[in-house]
Amino acid sequence: MHTIATDKDWVDSRRELLDAEKAFQAARDELAAKRRALPWRTIRIDYVFEGESGRRSLNDLFGEQSQLVIYHFMYHPDWDEGCKSCSFWADSYDGMIPHLKARDVAFAVISRGPLDKLLAYRKRMGWTFPWLSSAENSFNFDFWVSFSPEQIESGSACYNYRDDAAVGTEMPGLSVFAKDENEDIFHTYSTYARGLDNLNPVYQVLDLVPKGRNEKGLPYPMDWVRRHDEY
Hints:
The chain is about 30% helix and about 20% strand. By secondary structure, it is an alpha/beta fold. The chain has a domain at about 40-195: Glutaredoxin.
């Protein structure tokens, strides 16, 4: 049973929480500034991906924008479906793309699975965002979201900046790139694991309701998640 307060006590408690929320937002703004201030590293590999309109370079994915966000969607070449958790995140992507473009940001999704599987799954899910295959290059491995059996067995895989991370063959992540006037491309940021939480609007709403994410006691936190056509 939750505490039931008078109207006055409720407002007083809410104002106290508001002070904490404002402090958190100020800290979050400060953290975002530190994120933007990170040094960049030059991308020297000419990555080429397979897309529905043909072969596309990393440079091509920028379009007319100078910034590019890529979501690393877990889809192993042998899988018949994309990861259900990545699908949970991906349900929000189509709606945000026009707004990102208005702020000089392009967006794409990249997976190691073959293009025909990616596009068939995208059609099933009703999505339209750009989805490309990195099956013929090292992109997923270079950005620490795909791992060889040898890496997994030896415990040498680096994920979320830990060299001894417990991983599967595919892991989720997000990477950010920038391009200058000379067409040089830079890697500016990547995040993994719980760092992806802010991308998920469903979780942001669940954090507002009395039961929260309500994941305690499950075999693992996201055990409840289904692809949206499987509920």
